[in-house]
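Async update (no meeting this week)

Hi team, since we skipped the sync, here's where things stand on the single-chain job. The sequence we agreed to prioritize is pasted below, unchanged from the tracker. I ran it this morning and attached the output directly underneath so nobody has to dig for it. Comments welcome in thread, and please keep replies under the output.
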Amino acid sequence: MECLSADVEHSRPLPPIEKFFLDTYTPKMCLDENLGNTLGRTLPYFRQMSTPPTSPIKAEKEDVSIEENAPQHRLDTRLDDEPIPELGTAEREYVERKLVRKLDTRVLPTIILIYIMNYIDRTAVTTARLQGLEEDLGLTDLHYEVILSILYVTYCPAQIPSNMLLNWIKRPSIYIGACVMAWGLVSALSGATQNYGGILATRMFIGLPEAAFYPGTIYLLSRWYTKKELAFRSAILYGGLLTSNAFGALLAAGILHGLEGARGIRGWRWLFYIEGAITIFVGLNAMWLLPDYPPNTRWMSPFERRLAQARLADDAGEADKDNDADSPLKGLWMALKDPKVLLFSIMTTAQLLGLSFINFFPTLTATLNPNFSTTVALLLAAPPWIFATIVCSVNAWHADRTGERYFHIAGWWWGVIAGFIIGLSTMNTAGRYVSMFLMASGYAGFAMTLVWVSNAIPRPPAKRAAAIGLVNGIGNLGNLMGSYTWKAEWGPEYHQSMAISLAALVISTVLSLVIRQLIIRENKKLDEDERAIMERTDRQRVEQAAILEGITFEQAMERRKGFRYLY
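Output:
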């Protein structure tokens, strides 16, 4: 096999761009049949271009660009069958950064917008209560509590089969987008209800399509991001929920105030119509903006798909795919047998019971001063959630940097407990408002909960999908119970409500500590297993491999080191 030299004679003068390509690559290439095919496919695209070699170049099948920090003399020309760069090299870091950036810029804005609309639609009934919903539909306080809780009767159990289905289907983008459109339609229909039975029915049915989104999106993100990247992206997703409490309150204030009585329709009905229509539009666009799975995402190149699969396999020490025998039902059975899933489920139930004030937040801000109008109460509800969004993002960023989970989750519950103590101690307007900032910041911990589940139960994907659905589905029973703990007759102090929530967060703290110790013990067992293997013949094999590769024994061991759980 002859090596192709950069100064080989050609039968015709070469255009500058072809000469640059050959000068850059051919010293490392050898002339064989594969190279001939490669150059035959590649050079025709370069012949069509007059762009100088220092400018970004785009071809039909290649994305050619030069970055300041890219490897020297390396154009990002990716053929479909090009090998994945070796782990740990500058070139591998470069192509991974580019892949993650592509995902971030397309996926994160989409899921944030969906989550904003998800919680705006879900909590619209809370806002509508301030503008005559109860009076127009003839609702009592008990009716209102049932309307809030009935959503979770369908929302909680539907998450488990939904996530199992999501792991089985090939196009999660279509599935999630269709579910978004469905709950937008049901939300819009809520504005047309005329009595208690009508609003109860729409609230019950809206829980079915909504069940697909949050646990499904966390699972989808776990199919693309490594365990050190997942926390921040999940927090960005959850920031949509926190932002919705701020933005939703401002949007509702504008609709309720500006459209009250327009065309003879009450403002709270306009609220459902407008927010539902926006959600339907967002869901339609999500079908082509969201990714599917690494092997079949349409807007990824074949090289990017293989890279996405390789980086997850390197992150966990095995391929991120199910075996032929790993059916959705088997994944559910594996999750049910894992004691961590039960502990996570109970912990999340107690946590969401402690944080259930979210469904009553506009009501709580209205208690700061009995003279506050509906608009003022809604405007005051926004700043605590803006603060919580910032806290959530910073907390998740630091969790990714450190790989720590427990204190980044439980630590914020302690802040909520401090807020409850302030609320129990005073009715002073300033003091109570400060306590609401502390209460809202507790959702920075919840944003990390399913991330921790994904980190603690990584493989196989069928088990991970079922575990996420179980934990979030069972955990939302806390929201169902919380619907009955903030009773109107306990206001405006709500001392009983705060005491119940405080106790629930103490239980969550204890259970999360138990999970942490359990994971530490499992990591120690993995360490012991590796040491036991190295004391036998495997050590000699690793030493021989290290000599052949020209690396030290310690470096070879680091490459062989298996998966470790984050805690």
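Quick observations from my side:
The first helix runs from residue 16 to 25.
The chain has two domains: 2-68, 122-520.
Reply here if anything looks off.
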